[in-house]
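Morning run. Coffee first, then this:
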Amino acid sequence: MSAAVVLAADYDRLRHFLSEVPPTINLRRWDPVVVTKLHQLGFFNILGHQPDPNLLLQDGDFLLMRILRSTDCGNLGDVDDALMELGAFVSEDDESLDEKVTHTLSIVSEVMSNVTQHAYRNDVDFRYDHLDSFWVSAEANRSDRTLRIVLYDQGATIPVTYPKMARTDRVIRFLERVLRGSPKFDYGDDGTYIRAALRYGGSRTDLSYRGKGFPQMIELLDTLGGGELTVLSRGGWCARARNGKVTSGSYPCSIGGTLVEWKIEL
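And here it is:
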């Protein structure tokens, strides 16, 4: 799903700036499983090859939300509505589970809003033209009662914006302790900045009601007793595994924005 969202976003951007639909090369040679998943997620609709599909598509125990593009964090209402339907699909009229779903999705919505509001800043020079947009998709699995949510933007990225923010002393100490010497390659420190964002959030203070975002999401996963969170931004990555272990690292190439994937166990 994550790969499909990134692919769709790049095609969407190309279609916008070229004023024509980019070709899909040798489509008949593509793995049928891949083509089916892209079809279900609305990829070919984005290319203009098919009429608008339904927003939600059921496939056995799975309910998929097709890829949606939102222009700003205040325009995520359609996403919120779709996520509530996915939650209802998982809960199956189980009142105790339904309450947990509602609470979980309210936090997810707030985290998404906090994450996206920093993506397109006026004080950042972008290498490529962008649409000031966010692409979102999601999947509910009724058999194991999980939600998977993917959010992608082509914005400034965490490693670019995080160092520019005013930091508390404890964040500065963490970064100084970890970032020793020059990185071995471009983007070599990116994973560390993402790890700091997940650990401390974006607050300039230590006040408990500030800096909502990734730490709030990790706290939710801890409360639920499972689930995973993976963040890739520019060349870095950081992942919180089901057992709570956090790992991070960097690649010498950029993903072209920030990709966040939650797997929530209800």
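The chain has nine helices and eight strands. Good start to the day.
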